[in-house]
Each structure stands twice: as structure tokens, then as C-alpha cells.
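C-alpha cells please, single chain.
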Amino acid sequence: MSTRTVERIRIRYGETDMMGHAYYGNYLLYFEQARAAWLRARGVSYLEMEEAGFKLPVVEVWAKYRGEVKYDDVIAVTIWAEEMRRAAVHFKYEIVNESTGKLVTEGYTWQVCVDSSMKVVSIPQFFRDLASEP
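Here you go.
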């Protein structure tokens, strides 16, 4: 549906577990950082979207871990909008460990569009337009 955006992230020491690997829960933060980068790459910040009266809370998340990421590794998180429904958007993610060149994580999130009162609303046209931009 949309072209891909890549966000590079260096793994900080505090993001690792006692085994020296990036803690699995942090991958949701990496997904979030990539979503913000996806918006910024299209000229909009998440704050601007909220100021326009729209939010996109995550209602479903899935991740499959395929390899390891350790302290000081750099990962490339690729994100794209896979599908858009009336009030929901499906983002997909791939994470590559640039130190090894291997795909280490795949995932997705489903998010619904809500207004300031948290009522589900149709995705606004300006956001639909963002998803179709290169």
C-alpha cells in the first residue's frame, strides 16, 4: 500500500537483558519509533495528528523473533502500511541487524483511529493520502 520507511536504531545497554540481548519488550518501542519516523517521512508528526483531533492506539500487536540483537548493534526497522480499512490501519515491520545483515524480527500492529473522546472514527483523508505517498 505505501512505500517503506527505514528507521535505524542503536541498541543501548539499558535495553538489554541479563543475557546481553535486546529485551523482547523493547521491540514494541522500536515499532513505535518506526511509526513516528514513517509519519515524519511524510511531513507530519504524531503530535500534529493529535492536534488535528486524531489518535491511533494499538489494538493488536504481533512479533516473531528470528535472531539476536545485542548491545551496541544497529538495527534497521522497516515499516510500511500494509492495509487500511475504514477506521483501522495495519502496519508491518521487519527488523534487520545491520551487524550481521540478518532479518531478526518480523511483526505487525493494527491501530484504530479515534477522536479526542476515544470514539472510533473513520481515518481522515489526509492520513489516507499519507499512506499512498511514496
